[in-house]
Every structure is written in structure tokens, then in C-alpha cells.
Design brief:
Layout (H helix, E strand, L loop, with lengths): L1 H34 L4 H36 L2 H37 L6 H32 L1 H9 L1
Helix pairs in contact: 1-2, 1-4, 2-3, 3-4
Length: about 160
């Protein structure tokens, strides 16, 4: 039963960290880059609408990725445990950066979309993009670490199959 549980946790950790990294990666490469080439009013309107949709989805993905990476660490030993533990910490980092970096700025953007942006809006939007890069790199690194951790477990499976 323990092997089945471990394999299930590994699979869900791979899926959830992959989805999180993919969502942040797509956002950084495509959405954020598009924000830079459209008029400010278009960016603010789209950004506000996107954040309304993203809230629940991204929070769920971050929670699932953190819980499953931590569970993988607890069910593992040695390097696999350390890699999964660091992955969990990186997912939590992406959550904290989002919560205390991006979300407050999103609140300001929501106000700007229905009023006007302040004179220093470019600096504030640059700060949002910096936070976005940090959380994206954290999520991508977490995914890579979970991949490596899952591959380190393979010799255990081969030994079990031969027994």
C-alpha cells in the first residue's frame, strides 16, 4: 500500500507543480509580454479580468503543488526527500510572492482600470513584472526538482520489480 501511495503522491506532485509552472511560464512569456505592447487602458482592463479568473485556479494549483511536494518529501528518503522539500519551499515562495507582491498591485490595477493610473504607474507595473518573474522561476524550479526527485525513485522501483 505504501508504494501505491508514494506513486500516487509522486504523480500528483508532478502534475500539480507542472501545471503551476506551465501557468506561470505561459503568463510570463506570453501574457506579460503582451501587456507591454498594448495600450495601458487595454492592459488594465484585461489584467483586472484575468486576475478575477486566476484567483481560485492559481491558489488551488499552488496549494496542491505545495501539499503534494511536501507529502513526497515526507514519504521519501535521502536526496529525494531534500529535493521534494526544497520544491515545496519554492512553491510556498511562489505563493508568498504572489500574495504579498502581485496581489496588492493587482488591487491597485483594478482601481486604475476604472479611474486613471498614477504618474508612477510604470514603476509599479515593473515591480509587478519583477514579482511575476520571481514566482515563475520559483515554480519552474520546483517542477524541475520534483521531476528529478521522481527519477531518483526509479532504482527503487526496479529493485522491487526484480524481487
Amino acid at each position: 500500500m505504501s508504494k501505491i501511495r508514494s506513486d500516487l503522491v509522486t504523480g500528483v506532485a508532478l502534475l500539480s507543480t507542472g501545471l503551476l509552472a506551465g501557468a506561470f511560464g505561459y503568463g510570463a512569456v506570453n501574457v506579460a509580454a503582451t501587456f507591454d505592447v498594448v495600450p495601458l487602458d487595454v492592459r488594465l482592463t484585461f489584467h483586472t479580468a484575468l486576475m478575477q479568473r486566476n484567483g481560485v485556479v492559481m491558489q488551488t494549483a499552488m496549494a496542491l503543488a505545495a501539499i503534494c511536494s511536501l507529502a513526497l518529501a515526507l514519504l521519501s528518503r535521502g536526496r529525494t526527500r531534500r529535493l521534494a522539500g526544497v520544491a515545496a519551499a519554492l512553491v510556498v515562495t511562489s505563493f508568498l510572492v504572489t500574495r504579498f507582491g502581485n496581489v496588492p498591485i493587482n488591487g491597485r490595477i483594478k482601481v486604475w482600470a476604472v479611474t486613471t493610473a498614477p504618474a508612477d504607474h510604470a514603476a509599479i507595473l515593473d515591480r509587478w513584472e519583477t514579482y511575476n518573474v520571481i514566482r515563475t522561476v520559483a515554480a519552474l524550479t520546483a517542477f524541475a526538482l520534483v521531476i528529478v526527485a521522481s527519477r531518483l525513485k526509479l532504482p527503487d522501483r526496479a529493485g522491487q520489480l526484480g524481487a
